Each structure stands twice: as structure tokens, then as C-alpha cells.
Amino acid sequence: MLDILIYPVSGVMKLWHLLLHNVVGLDDSLAWFVSLFGLVITIRAIIAPFTWQMLKSGRAAAHVRPHRAAIRKEFEGKFDEASIREMQKRQSELNKEHGINPIAGCMPGLIQMPFILGLYWALLRMARPEGGLENPIINSIGFLSPEEVQSFLEGRINNVPLPAYVSMPTEQLEYLGTTQAEVLSFVLPLFIAAAIITAINMAMSMYRAFQTNDYASSVSNGMIKFMLVLSILAPIFPLSLGLTGPFPTAIALYWVSNNLWTLFQTIIMMIILERKYPLSEEFKVHHLEQRDKYRAKQKEKRSFLWTRRKNRALMLLTPWKASSLHAENVELTSARTKKINEQKQAQKEISTKRRETQREMNRAAMERLKKRRAEVKAKKKGLIDASPHDPSPEEKEEN
């Protein structure tokens, strides 16, 4: 499966290597080194328009959020067919008016992921050829010929082989003419730089997320919490995998260059976005209202949990009040649970009725479609029956 992904990556690397080595005249090792940056430039240049469209679409979605909330509030509690059709029509018109494309946010990741997987698999196969580095059996990898794969294996940057990695066995490092200390001294600053740049990129992503987060959506709030955890773990990822896993020097170089590109591209696009499509005052007011409601709800939840924990602690310190404190906890929990269940039940009833109405609408649409197809089929059959080759009933009667 991953072999298919190797071909576009190997093709781009081969073109850059041929250009840099045969046309520009760079040294073979340096040409392979620079071709990694050329690969980053090529991939990110392809993705850049989709990334910009994603940011632009996200900003447009933020601008229409107050209008979308007003539509939902207007049709809140309504589940008849006319109301559903009108709500869908107005939401569709809103998306069309502001040029919102829900698929735009997925495109950069969908395009970039095959290239990342293909690059990792191609470099890993070049760094770990069949038969091992001591007795390698050099085969073609994607569009790269055996001679080009051998040239890559012999490539060095700062006297460190491109296929070498920190956790590589000692005998393989000796075969490549290097040591673990030399490899570590070269790649450790790269992985540290990758971790730092990753942390900066995550911080910028968090800033964008908080700037336009939809506090009325539980999914959006959950994504914010997930991103907070990810922002802590993501910088550790390059260090841990780079120092313990089979990550060649070439991967470290690609990692740093790709993160640098992401950083500068994000800064430039955010500046352009803020100047061309600044957040409207209407959105800012709506965003603050939703944020205050969310914080008030979270404060109420924390107060409930704190009261319950405090009562549990007092039950240990004042055993003679344990029964009354326990009864208070039970009462608080029951009241809160009842309130939440009532809200969920009301929402569930409306959602269920809307789904039933939507199913009926879909059935009616399918029936209309079947009827139309039957009419078209009957019309075609009537035309065939009335063709000159077959006499009509009137002609038969005359004859």
C-alpha cells in the first residue's frame, strides 16, 4: 500500500537532485541534502492554496455564526416540514452568500499526509536496504534507480551519513563510517529545533482556535481541550521518536524545514487574513456572549464539584455530621442530574421529531423520483412503439 505513495515523493526528489547535481553542479551529497528542502517547497507550494482557502473559509464561518445562531433560535422547537425546509434553505443561502465550503478544512491534511507517509517510507527503505547496510541489495525505490539509491546511501552532511540514526546498531554505524556520538551531536539540535518550532506552531493554532471558538458547541469545546493536551505532547514527539526510533538524519532535516515553512507560512497568512478579513464587531459581541455563558456553566459545575468534595472531606473530619452531609450531597447530585436530564430529554425529543420529519421528506422525494423515472420510461417506450417501423393502432385499423 505504502509503495504507491513512494512514487510521487521519489519523483520529486529525483527531479530536484537532477536539477541541483547535473544542472547547477552541486556536490552529490549536497544535492541530496538540498533536494529534501526542494521536496518541502514542492509539497507545501501545492498545499498553500488549500491552506489559505481553509483559513478563509474558517473566518467566513466565524462571521456567519451570529446569523446561524439567530436562525437556530428562530426555528427552535419547530419540527414540521415547512420549518425544516425553510431553515435548511436559509442556512444554504447563508453558506452560498459567504462562500463557505465545509470540505476546505480537510484538504491540506488529506494532500499532505500521503507525501509525509511516502517520504518516511522511501527514506526508511533507502536507509535500511534489503540485506542490511553491511551487504546491501540495492533495488530501485519508486522512480529512483539503484545507482541513485546507492548515491543517497553514500551522501553525508557535516560528515554524518544521511541514512544514519541515533538508535542504529553499532556495527551498522561503523559500516557507514560514523559513531553514535557524531550522529547524536548533529541530529540532537535538529530535533530540539523541531520541538521548539512545533511548540510555536501549536501555540499559534491555539490562539486561532480561542479567537474564533464556538463556545455553544460541545464538539468545538472538546476539540479545544484536545488541542491543549496535544500542544503539550506534540513538542515531545520529535525528541522521543528522533532519539529512540529509526528516524534517519534525512527525516530530521525534512522535519525542521517543514516546520519552519509552516511557521512562516502561518505568520504571513494570518497577517493577510487579519488585514483582508478582520473579525466583525457583530461576531466579537456574539463570541463574548457565548464565552461568558460557557464560563458561567463551567463555574457552576466547578462549584458543584467543590461543594461535594468539601462535604466528603467534612464527613471524615466530623463523623457525627456524616449523615446530613451525605444527604446534602445526594440532594445536590439528584437536583443537578434531574436538571441535566430534563434538558437532554427536551433536546432529544425535538431531534427525534425532526429526524422523523426528515425521513418522511426523504421518502416523499424518493417516491417523486421513482414516479418521474417511470414517466420518462413510459414516454420513451411510447415513442419506440410509435416509431415508423411499427404501425400505430390507427394504421392497423386502416389497413
Automatic annotation (TrEMBL):
Disordered: annotated segments: 340-399
GO CC field: membrane
Superkingdom as given in the UniProt entry: Bacteria
Composition bias type Basic and acidic residues, residue spans: 340-368, 387-399
Membrane protein topology class: Multi-pass membrane protein
Residue ranges constituting the Membrane insertase YidC/Oxa/ALB C-terminal domain according to the UniProt record: 32-270
Main location (coarse class): membrane
Biological process annotations from GO: protein insertion into membrane
Keywords recorded for this protein, A-Z: Membrane, Transmembrane, Transmembrane helix
Family per record: Belongs to the OXA1/ALB3/YidC family. Type 1 subfamily.
Name assigned to this protein: Membrane protein insertase YidC
Organism: Corynebacterium suranareeae
